[in-house]
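Amino Acid Chain and Its Fold in Token Form
===========================================
What this section holds: a protein sequence and its matching fold, both as plain text.
Structure line: whole-number tokens from a learned vocabulary of local backbone shapes, matched to residues.
Purpose: to set a sequence beside its fold so the mapping can be learned.
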Amino acid sequence: MITVWFNHLLKAVKLLEKHDYVAVNDIETLEIFIEFKRKDKTDDIYAGAITVPPEKASNIHEAVVITSLPYYKYRFINEKITYQELKAELLKKCKQYIQELEKINPELILAGRIQRLITKMSQLSNSL
């Protein structure tokens, strides 16, 4: 489950290089998304957890979207972070996760989903 979250967040941060809006679906709840908005082409990202109306959420078929979503309530909104801070923190936490897996069992990091995670991390760390 954590691997899925990291994959979605890595994809979102990568998309923020070219898009001003990205939302990541909560993998446990269809209607909840974490949204990231860039303001006025700056490095500042504003994050928020939003609840999308159920009738709208059922039409969303991707875990990571770049189209602004309608919402009727939020849990937190407009938490400010720079793009570089977000990227650095995500890469740091992904690396820690992989190191923990390796400590538990070195063969775990040979699994396909972990190798894909490592590839995405590498692509993100080498971009911009």
User: Anything to note?
Assistant: The beta strands are 21-25, 32-38, 44-51, 64-65, 73-82.
